[in-house]
Design brief:
This protein has 191 residues and is mostly helical. The chain has one domain (47-188). The chain is 68% helix and 0% strand. It has helices at residues 2-18, 25-31, 38-51, 54-82, 111-127, 139-150, 156-188. Helix 4 packs antiparallel against helix 5 and helix 5 runs parallel beside helix 7. The longest helix is centred in the last third of the chain and has 33 residues, at 156-188.
Length: 191
């Protein structure tokens, strides 16, 4: 069963990666960079500050940062435990895929997918009752995650597991926020 999944993963990577068009390589190289998305992070921060009282905005921001730290820690522990080579470092396929980036380290699971889906989901959960169009932010993790396949550094399963882990982590942190922070904020707010 595992062999079939790994075979599917490899074939899907080969197919998706082969769809690349050289004219779009620069776009995907920019889209895969974390620095490209800094304006979006700033927008998230501005929206949180604009839509919540100062104290609550600071707790929300802290929760997002704690979530980011948690996801990065779990991702690094998982990568070191699983030790799956990235496609660009795998001698069996690195000569037949398009490689636009060449990071070292391991592949499983994608930190780009995990962190982008975690942050976006937590922001959406906080803002969904205040901004109806907040769901549009999911374009970011979709583009960010797919870019990792396009540039040849992740398998589809790395992306899917990373996205799933990010989503679950965001729901966990949102539940913890509601359990421990919301009662504290309600007690300290003026009546």
């Amino acid at each position: 069963m595992l062999d079939r999944l790994l075979q599917w993963d490899r074939e899907t990577l080969l197919y998706l990666n082969s769809l690349g068009i050289e004219d779009y390589d620069s776009y995907w190289s920019v889209a895969t960079s974390i620095n490209t998305w800094i304006p979006l992070f700033l927008l998230f921060l501005i929206l949180v500050i604009a839509k919540f009282p100062k104290k609550e905005a600071s707790f929300i921001t802290t929760t997002v940062l704690l979530l980011l730290g948690f996801v990065l820690l779990m991702m690094n522990l998982t990568k070191d435990f699983v030790e799956r080579l990235r496609p660009n470092n795998n001698a069996e396929i690195n000569t037949i895929i398009r490689i636009l980036k060449s990071p070292e380290g391991y592949s499983f699971f994608s930190g780009h997918a995990a962190t982008s889906f975690a942050i976006t989901t937590l922001i959406v959960l906080f803002l969904r009752k205040k901004i109806r169009w907040v769901w549009i932010f999911y374009f970011w993790p979709l583009i960010f995650s797919f870019s990792r396949i396009y540039v040849g550094v992740h398998y589809p399963s790395d992306i899917l597991v990373g996205a799933f882990f990010g989503l679950l982590s965001a729901f966990l942190f949102y539940a913890l926020y509601n359990r421990f922070i919301v009662p504290y904020l309600l007690l300290t707010r003026p009546l």
